[in-house]
């Protein structure tokens, strides 16, 4: 499996699935969640409403899949990351579950490529360095069956630098 790093907007990434750092309502919000719902259009929201009607809200660490609507990806995998509460409320395991459940869902749906944002590192205040370590180690340890490429998409320069250093051991990684 190839791992790529991009500094940019996940809503512009062409791949089989992009991951949405969703809230438990699945109905859109701020940050990457709001951007995906706005740019993806009403088809994503409609499928999220159907999922809610079937199962209720999406719990922390869980993942569900929808169409990507108007986005260049084929699917959106919505996962609910943990809110950082000082590290004493199982936040690390819950974040790991976000990545694992997203990868499992991608494989179940025939995806060969998947793009992840920094889950929980915005308004949920998960420390960016720790989140990057969990994301990278979880992806590297995943027993891949068909996923050929994982893309980490960092919207801000700080996150890009953190992933760059962890993936390469230096600060000179370019995509």
TrEMBL record:
Q: Which domain of life is it from?
A: Eukaryota
Q: Which SMART domains match?
A: A1pp
**What residues does the Macro domain cover?**
1-171
Identify the InterPro entries for this entry. Answer: Macro_dom, Macro_dom-like
Q: Which SUPFAM superfamilies match?
A: Macro domain-like (SSF52949)
Quote the NCBIfam families the UniProt record gives: PRK00431.1-6
Q: What is this protein called?
A: Macro domain-containing protein
Source organism per UniProt: Exaiptasia diaphana (Tropical sea anemone)
What does UniProt list as this organism's lineage?
A: Eukaryota, Metazoa, Cnidaria, Anthozoa, Hexacorallia
């Amino acid at each position: 499996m190839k791992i790529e790093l991009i500094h940019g907007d996940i809503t512009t990434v062409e791949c089989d699935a992009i991951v949405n750092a969703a809230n438990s309502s699945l109905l859109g919000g701020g940050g990457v969640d709001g951007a995906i719902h706005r740019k993806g259009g009403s088809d994503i929201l409609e499928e999220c409403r159907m999922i809610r009607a079937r199962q209720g809200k999406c719990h922390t660490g869980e993942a569900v899949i929808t169409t990507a609507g108007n986005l260049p990806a084929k699917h959106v995998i919505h996962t609910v990351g943990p809110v950082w509460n000082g590290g004493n409320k199982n936040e690390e395991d819950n974040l790991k579950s976000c990545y694992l459940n997203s990868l499992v869902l991608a494989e179940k749906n025939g995806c060969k490529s998947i793009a992840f944002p920094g889950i929980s590192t915005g308004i949920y205040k998960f420390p960016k360095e720790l989140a990057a370590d969990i994301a990278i180690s979880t992806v590297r340890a995943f027993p891949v069956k068909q996923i050929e490429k994982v893309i980490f998409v960092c919207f801000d320069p700080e996150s890009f630098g953190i992933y760059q250093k962890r993936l390469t051991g230096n600060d000179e990684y370019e995509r």
